[in-house]
Amino acid sequence: MIAKRARSLEESEAADECKRQRMEITSIEQQSGEPNFPPEMVLEIINRVPVKSVIRFGSASKYWYNSIHQDPKFMSNYFLQSLKNPNFIVCVLNVNLKDSIFMNHMLYIEDNHNHKHAGDGKIVHKSLTSRSNGKKQVVGYCNGFVCLSKMIKHPSTYDIYSLSMPEVLSIFTPTVADGYVKFHGFGFDSITKEYKLVIILNSSASIDLFKCIMVFTLGTSLWRKIEIPNPPLKLFGNDVYKAAISCSDVLYWGTTVGSRDMISFDLHSEKFQVFQIPSECIPSSTEQQQQQAPIVRHLEFKGSLCVARLEKTSGTSQNNCKVHLYALSDRSKSMWTKKTLLLSLCPLPCSVDGVRVMGFSDKVLLYWFDGEHFHFYDLHRGQDFKDFKTKYHNGGLFDFQLCTHVENPLSLKTFVPQRAHRFHADALKAIIEERPRRPGGILRLSTPNKEPVALCFLF
Fold first, then answer.
1. Over the stretch 367-390, which tens digit does the pLDDT of each residue have?
2. Is the distance from CB of 356 to CB of 402 less than 8 angstroms?
3. For 166-215, what is each residue's pLDDT tens digit?
4. β-strand partners of 181
5. Whole-structure pTM over 0.85, yes or no?
6. Could you report how far apart the first and last alpha carbons of the chain are, in Å?
7. Which is nearest to 447 in space by CA: 55, 17, 44?
8. In angstroms, how far is CA 175 from the centroid of its own chain?
9. Do 93 and 107 meet the contact criterion of CB atoms below 8 Å apart?
10. Burial category of 423 from C-beta neighbours within 10 Å (exposed 0-12, middle 13-18, buried 19 and up)
């Protein structure tokens, strides 16, 4: 009996000791902010939470901040999870306010049956609104970052916006004597995990003379110049801005109307190449004379470059539109595979010229604006994908572009060199005025109820 009581007492003391240790561990976890359940489970849960909620978690404790913002594994896993559930961003640019002041909006389309429906059940809200003195265009959209620039011959900056955080990274363009920007693009090298800005310059002395390529890798502090000793083509025409199509780590540009030449730039090898689109995509002299030239659009579809040729059909058939899709199968040999789809668009766009094309997951979408609604049409299903009404009624006198959107918790702070100088936003004007002598970049940070802060880096 005595021995039994002794064992019972020892077991009770051991249980009390285990309880005391668990309480100490819990207290330490509460103080440090670390969860008291497996980290793998935490990451699995957070990977399924909207990115803006994830960012708020980062302010809960130092542990959460480091896990979310400093752990490359978490960033990679969250991004891969987001790729499985892409959404849409409609970039509505250059909505005129007054006296060359324009507003730019990023409209985020998502499923949410708990809110007011738009179109077929999709709702729209603004992910980003910016104001600009002069018109802008989309240079590129990549992994939750959108790059904009002014529509002038030599933009002073390229502005990269995060759609998850109130951050804007402005990269000053290099000063190149006797040159202006002919083409530009923004993309991601999936091998090195680097984001790159690329500009192709022409000579100011001769608008068709190829000058050079300039490349800026985010996170570095300088533009690199890539010379093309004997450029294989002349960049004819007086276009002052052309954005790239980004497909599988390669940027693509069409050259001029009536030319079969396209150019590519591999973001990893940084090699320049010229190839040709199918001859059917070039209007014949007869089509030009009769003003029946086909509408040609470039797009990315399933990781490959595609050229879409749109045309209206005649006759009484219910199919009133035809789309020829050419997918690039071998860039070095300019080889393409073709597929033709007959469509019945109802209502028919008032002008085929206003129809845009994009690839989304396993779909190819046509989209257009009719003055009141945005319409989206799934080519493969042969039916409307969705549509929504917008308040922009000014006769469609604005630019718009549909992009595939994925959530990205990566902060643009990641791309600011460590030697960056910190100053408040009211000092930006003085820094910008000194740009010819002190080129670099600026990261603007806006926090609710706090004065905006900016980081400047110089090179």
1. 888 777 778 888 777 655 566 666
2. yes
3. 889 999 888 777 777 888 999 999 999 999 999 988 776 655 567 789 99
4. 201
5. no
6. 84
7. 55
8. 26
9. no
10. middle
